[in-house]
Amino acid sequence: MVRLTRLGRRNLEERMAELGETITELEAILADEDRLRTVIKEELVELGEGFATPRRTQIVPDPGDLDIEDLIDDEELVFAMTSAGYVKTMALSEFHAQGRGGRGVTGAKLKDEDALAHLIHTTAHAYLLFFSNRGRVYRLKAHEVPSASRTARGTSIVNLLPLQVDERVQAVVDTRDYETQRFLFFATRQGRVKKTLFTAYDSSLKAGLIAVHLNDGDELVSVVPTNGSDELFLVSGQGQTLRIREENVRAMGRSAAGVRGMRFRDNDFLVSCVVANPEAMVLHLTTEGFGKRTEPSEFSVKGRGGLGVRGIRVTGRRGAVVGALVVGESDD
């Protein structure tokens, strides 16, 4: 009996000594913040190694949940983008029609050497296609472009699209044109052209798609929606203008390089491609701010691959041609 009592007492004393050492150790850890953090990290690693296993079930959205677009009114918007790459959307109600000669309203507050490059009337739920000089295409819903006031500069496009170094947006197309325009017509700096079905670019790939294959040293200049039987004006930096029929360019795949659309003399290149309208005039614009309107009948239809005819005389005072537009007498 005495032996059992002594054995029990010895066990208690040993246990008390162990507890005392543990208490001393824990108090030392609590008193040292760096050591405490180290111990916590070690214990978390041990927990992860012991219990971290891949999830065996999949978390999926409830089909009954509301889509974000259910909470966004499909209102009419004006999308604006500057040459420096700043974008924004504005409610169409912020603008109102004015008579000829009016001063208009401010559409954007721009910094020096920046200018409005794209202005599109669309709706909040519509997709916008962004085509870059590298021949890639990206897609955004109009409501994904941050809205801003008329006087605000907007958001840089690089915050919305995964553009690569030295990649810039050359064309923006509203996909509501799917209903009436069957094709997208591409034109490159070296004068190559391509026609592809509009629906070939209906993809949600976040990293973008190849829109057109480019030869070395070439870049995409213009992308315009067409109906399959349109006529187009190809305009060069030296003012040469070629009118061709879309029907002479067969439809090709999304990544095709296209065919020769226009030839150039030395040091010349393509700056613009626009769809012809018999009821509108062709407006050539130069680097020095000069413009010239010409009746479309002044340019006869030619086969693709030609040099075209002079649409505007390029001089040192006028500067080179930077672009062309098709405008009507009543255009706002």
List keywords for this structure.
alpha+beta; DNA topoisomerase (ATP-hydrolyzing); 332 residues; 2 helices; Neuraminidase; 4-stranded antiparallel sheet; DNA binding
Largest sheet: 4 strands, antiparallel
Radius of gyration, in Å, reads 33 Å
> Mean pLDDT score, rounded?
87
Uncertain spans: 98-104
CATH class of the domain at 180-332: Mainly Beta
Which topology of the domain at 180-332 does CATH recognise?
Neuraminidase
CATH architecture of the domain at 180-332: 6 Propeller
Q: Total helix count? A: 2
What percent of residues adopt helix (DSSP H or I)?
A: 10-25%
Structural write-up:
The chain contains two helices and 19 strands. The strands form five sheets. A four-stranded antiparallel sheet has the order 3-1-2-6, with no helix packed on it. The chain has a four-stranded antiparallel sheet with strand order 7-4-5-10, with no helix packed on it. Strands 11-8-9-14 form a four-stranded antiparallel sheet, with no helix packed on it. The protein is elongated. Residues 98-104 have low confidence and may be disordered. The longest helix has 30 residues, at 2-31. By secondary structure, it is α+β, with helices and mostly antiparallel strands. GO terms for molecular function: ATP binding; DNA binding; DNA topoisomerase type II (double strand cut, ATP-hydrolyzing) activity.
Topology:
Elements: H1 2-31, H2 33-51, E1 76-82, E2 86-91, E3 116-123, E4 127-132, E5 136-141, E6 155-156, E7 169-174, E8 183-188, E9 192-197, E10 209-210, E11 220-226, E12 231-236, E13 240-245, E14 259-260, E15 270-275, E16 281-286, E17 291-294, E18 309-310, E19 321-327
GO molecular function: ATP binding; DNA binding; DNA topoisomerase type II (double strand cut, ATP-hydrolyzing) activity
Pfam families: DNA_gyraseA_C
Protein name: DNA topoisomerase (ATP-hydrolyzing)
